[in-house]
Specification:
The protein is of the alpha+beta class and 76 residues long. 37% of the residues lie in helices and 11% in strands. A hairpin with a 2-residue loop joins strand 1 and strand 2. The radius of gyration is 16 Å and the shape is elongated. It starts with 7 loop residues before the first helix and ends with a strand.
Length: 76
């Protein structure tokens, strides 16, 4: 995908967002069940390396503020 002009950093951002959503306790079906099951199985198979408490989201959600000043975007 880097050849298509999409940076690795963009993939990391999207990947983190998708992973956060997989662990979010909601009843919607934004993530296909097959993908969701595969990720949950991988986390379940970590054994002693799995330091997460049950029902814990491993991705920290960081709030930020997006504002604009004329044509400039400012993110805090």
């Amino acid at each position: 995908m880097a050849q298509a002009g999409i940076s690795c950093q963009a993939f990391l951002v999207v990947g983190h967002a998708i992973l956060w959503r997989m662990f979010h306790p909601s009843d919607d079906d934004l993530i296909p069940e097959e993908q969701h099951s595969k990720v949950m199985a991988k986390y379940g198979n970590l054994g002693i390396d799995n330091l997460l408490a049950p029902e814990t989201n491993p991705v920290r959600k960081v709030p930020f503020i997006v504002d604009g000043y004329y044509t400039e975007v400012q993110i805090d």
